[in-house]
Task: structure prediction
Amino acid sequence: MKILVINAGSSSLKYQVFDMEKGEMIAKGLCDRIGVDGAISHKRPGKDTYKKDVELRTHDDAIALVLKLLTDPELGVLTDISEIGAVGHRFAHGGEKLTKSTILGEQEKEYLYSIVGINPLHGPPAIKGLEACQKLLPNVSHVGVFDTSFYSQMPPSSYVYPIPYEYYETYKIRRYGFHGTSHRYVSGKAAEYVGKDIKELKMITCHLGNGSSISAIKNGVCIDTSMGFTPQEGLPMGTRSGSIDPTVVTYLMNALGLSPKEMDDILNRKSGLLGVSGVSSDCREIMQADEEGNPRAHLAMEILYHYIVKIIGSYAAEMDGLDVLVFTAGIGENDAVVRESVCKRLGFLGVKIDEDKNRTAKRGEFCDMSLEGAAVKALCIPTDEEYMIALDTYNLVK
Ligand code: ADP
Result:
């Protein structure tokens, strides 16, 4: 069966097609600048990338173009659209009710509309992508895979904020967690690698990219994660502040006369590694500046390590131990210096890495960097959220 995976953003739409019997991705691409002008890039493994500027007014236009390319005699991978057995849609937010991957009927769609208020950035475009797909592929199941569902078994002590309880009851202000599909994928792979049932393992997974989060998975259940009500909480990120004293926000708003939107912009787009370093939001450029002696670039990286180590330490305490530590995403998969700097500060937990193995690991590939006999397995595992979405979709419809 072929599964189409759709990840729709406000002006972009990513897609991948998987052949599930072979377990392989056979095509992927990106529709960009939807509603602005429009462009597509389309790739098949081992073949040249096809790129074209093409008018994309709406998500409907984008999906129509994707389906046309997928069945194109020269560029396509399908002889007919009917080869698509089902579509998996990535949703960042499933609220409190959509706690596992689900075939999306009218009821589920209504619920997704009802939670747009707590998910204003990702919700509307993801629903647009779904509806565009449903129009053009009306005869197959459309499955929603939710980033938040991995956190649905967190205990209330992890997800209820210590603010008046009525805000949770009335407005559903609570911690939801994000990047769940990635944490679920790499934790499954890690358990497979160490050859143990995930139910017997205490694991911490670090998804370090532009957006970053860390999750604590005890006996197969995620019990805590660093992102919260929004993907703003937790670690300092490329341009997001992560957790700071909330009074800093009200103080600055008062002192500088900032509107909520302006404050939001500062916290989401001008903070984090960019805000501290003043150089870039990209780790590679900050580390380069650090090497050249820029003190603020150095400080930005030190703050990042400080928070990563602090969160890992607290999660190990929550789980009463640690068996496996995983690094993934852009920084986690590619940056041996970040992995080494973090692991070196975790010796007390039993994390001991072979520096050569870590440094010579191929970028973006699996690596077991643990020192022989170390109490904690330290692994680098490339994430694959799209495959996880395809697999959930396949398992629901096959
Ligand atoms: P997103 O959250 O947007 O998906 P990514 O997972 O792609 O982000 O991660 C982006 C981050 O990964 C950037 O900070 C970038 O510097 C870092 N990164 C990507 N490739 C490399 C590399 N080869 N070496 C070091 N860092 C890298």
Observations:
- The chain has two domains: 2-152, 195-385.
- The longest strand covers residues 24-32.
- Residues 235 and 310 are 10 Å apart (CA to CA).
- Residues 209-211, 238, 282-284, 329-331, 334-335, 363 surround adenosine-5'-diphosphate (CB under 6 Å).
